[in-house]
Every structure is written in C-alpha cells, then in structure tokens.
Amino acid sequence: MAFKNRKLKRKFVTNLALVLFLNLLIKPFWILGVDRTVQNVVGAEEYGFYFALLNFSLILNIILDLGITNFNNRNIAQHSHLLNKYFSNIITIRLLLGVFYAVISLILAWLWNYQWNQIKLLLFLVFNQFLASFIMYLRSNLAGLHLFKTDSIISVLDRTLMIIICSLLLWGHIIDEPFKIKWFVFAQTAAYLITALIAFLLVLWRSGRIKFRFDRRFTMAILKKSYPFAILTLLMAFYNRVDSVMLERMLEDGNRQAGIYAQAFRILDAASMFALLFAGLLLPIFSKMLKQKEAIGQLTQLSFILISVPSVIVSITCAFYSKEIMELMYQSHIDSSATIFAILMIGFIFISITYIFGTLLTANGSLRALNIMALSGMIINVVMNFILIPRFQALGSAISSLTTQSITAIIQVVIAFKIFRFHINYKLLILLLIFASGVILFGIISNDLPYNWIVRMILMIALSFILALSIGLIKIKDLYQIIKNDK
Q: How far is CA 372 from CA 358, 362, 379, 419, in A?
C-alpha cells in the first residue's frame, strides 16, 4: 500500500495508538467498574431516573455549542494563526449560550411535567453538560493545532478524576450512608471543573493573552458558519439519545424500562467512545488534507479497515455472549437486558462506519447532505419508537436504534462515494464478508467448547484477529512502514 503523504498518515496511526492505549487504560474501569457498580448499588429504577434525565440534557446539549466545536476544529486545523482571535471571542459566546441552554432546559422540563426532585438533579446535569461541552471546545483547539498527544491526555483526565472520587465514595468507607445517585452527579461536576481549568490553561498558553469580549458582528459571522454543524449535531443527538427519554415518558414503569435499557446501552456507549476517537483524529487531518487538495482515498480506506475489524469482532462477540456479559455486570433484569444488548451491539458496526464517512463529509463541509440524512434518521427513530415502545418496551427502542443506525450509515457511505468519486474496492468487500462470516463461525464453534465462557470468548476474539491478519485485511507490515517513516 503506497502512501503519498506518509507524515499525516504516520501522525494518524501513532496518535490513534496513543489515544486508544490511554482510553483502554481508563475507560473500561470506569464503565465496568465504577459506572456499573453505581447502577447495581442504587438499583435499576433510581439509575433509570438519572439516565433519562442525563439523556434529556444531552439532547439539548447542542444549544451549548451550536456547532462551534466542529467548526472550530476544522477551521483551526486550516488556519492555526486565527487561534487567539477566535478563542477570545468564542469563550464569551459559549458563556452566553450556557445561560440560554440552562433556561431552555428548565422551561422544557417544566412543560414536560418533571417533578421537583427531577428538576433539582437536572440543574446539576445541566451545569455538567456546560462543563463537558466547554472541555470539548477546548480540546478542539488542541486537535486543530495537531497537538494530539496533549488532547489524548485531556480526553481521559475527567474519567480518571471521576474514578478516584467515586472509588472513595463507593469503597473508601468515608461516608456511612448508602451511596446516592446525586453523589455520582456531584463527582462528575468536580472532575469536569478540574479538567476544564487545566484544558483552558493549556489553550491559553498556546494562544497567548486573551481579552474576553463580545463582538456582535464576529458572533453573527461565527454562528452563520457553524449553524449547519449545530443542526447536524442536534439531529444526531436526538436519534441517538431520545430512546430512554421516550421510554421514561411513555410507559408507566418508565424509570425501570429506562434502567434496563441503560444496562444494555452501557457497553455500546463505551465502545462508541472508542470509535469517536477515530473521528477526533480524522476531522483535523481530513480538513487539512482537503484544504491542501491532497487525495484522501487511502487514508479513508485505512481508517475504515482499522475501525471495521475491531467493531465487527466486538459486535458479534457481544451478541453471542450477551447473557453471560449481562450476568457478569448486573444483578437483575438479566434476560431482558441481554436481548436488548445483543441488538444494540450489532448497531455498533454501523456507528463505526458513521465515524469514518460522517467525519470525512464534515471535514469537506457537506453539511446539507448530512443534515438531510440526520433528519431522516430522527424521523425514522421517533416514529419507530412511538410504534414499538408501547408493545415491546425497551426492546422496541433497541430495534428502532439498530434500524436508524444502519440506514443512516449506509446513506453516509453512498454520499461520500458520490462526492469523492471513490471506486468500489470489491476485493476489500469480499475480504470483509469472509472475515465477518469467519467471526460468526468462531462464535458458533466456541459456544460448543467445554470451557468457561470467558475462555471461550477470548478464544473467539483471538481467532478473529488472527483471521483478519491471515487474509490480509490488516497488514502489520504496512502499519509498521507508516510508523517507521517520518518523512
């Protein structure tokens, strides 16, 4: 595989390795250790109460950003000399958006008949979303400057701090009372505050002295450029996060059903975070390559292969061992959450595809096509949820999610191939088909082996990676050459 621009591709592969290592070091313990333990301690109903409110705050999260982060990432990657000017003005804009977001959230919560105990927790979740969004904006500056190592460390700092705080609360015996879900939210607040401060100082160091000011003309110009990103983020957040909100609002036992869905959704959410790392690296790299009119076909194919292999293995393995994984993680609602989990994890394959081709289209500025796609996805998801939730409850939401993810991913691939005039690589498609079939076969065979299920699952994963190497889907030699060549 010949690469014309080895430096950018080396930067992608080496920094992808770093960010994956850091996240594999921290986030599995967060998801499987702390977050899972919190749900087991407080119970499915109380956690479902929190989870539905969290997703409510995430749907409205776009008000905090209005597409500024994605716009800024792409813009700073192409025009790094504008960092000081943009940073000084955008901070003021984000503070104003934070106030607006809080007001809108509380008004909608009141209109949706949320109770006072829900609104009290929502206030802290709203503040947490403001901090999380601000951290993402600060990281977009680091990524836009191609400071990927620094960005990688910041990407796991908040979770690291949450692990420390929650571990003390859960297992440190520093408080005699039973663990409460609000403590979980307060721990997030503390971790986000510290991370935001550190990230702010890092960006300030690169930008130089700034002046907080509100420039009406600059603000209108930024919002005019960023609003297509905002619409896209809003629509995608809606069809990715509305499931638990609709479960909680539509059903009498909504909190419990949202809690069951949260059990199944947790690993998908964690896996999606790793897939998102690809997008975080690719957006500034694609943006710079497109501005310099460099061919992006080879990098697109490389990133697609690198994300497809693990996503297929993870998805199919989780589907085969869904019940065992749920039994390992939780204490109740195992059968219900296992079926939902298997369905949701198949959707991870399509989510991974979205993070490659959606990122490429975003870097290219193809926002109109992406927004039409996202609007279609939102309509499909909401309509299917209205139809399926009353009959199948949380399972109906899982079916809606898988359907939406698959349709929107295929649409993005078609759009990308049309815009960039990619040629269909039939050899690659055949190899992927052989690979996926092989992983399914390994799953069937492993289920019949007389070993502990964890041993069987590990064997299935190992054989799947060996298959990917043996059929040439992943070529270690090519990756080594990219990393080795610094010129």
A: 13, 13, 11, 15
398 pLDDT band, cuts 50/70/90, is very high
Please enumerate in sequence order all residues whose Cβ is within 8 A of that of 412, keeping only pairs 6 or more positions apart, or say none.
353, 354, 357, 358, 361, 370, 373
Which pLDDT does position 43 carry in this prediction?
Answer: 81
> What are the pLDDT digits (tens) for 118-176?
888 889 999 999 998 889 888 877 776 767 778 778 888 888 999 999 889 888 778 77
Which one-letter amino acid corresponds to residue 47?
Y
Pick left, alpha or beta for residue 365 (phi over 0 → left; psi -120 to 50 → alpha; otherwise beta): left
Give the span between the Cα atoms of 425 and 423, in whole angstroms.
Answer: 6
Tell me if residue 171 falls in helix, strand or coil. helix
DSSP letters of 65-88?
HTTHHHHHHHHHHH-GGGHHHHHH
409 alpha-carbon distance from chain centroid: 15
Whether the pLDDT of residue 437 is over 90: the answer is yes
Q: Is 14 left (phi over 0), alpha (psi -120 to 50) or beta?
A: alpha
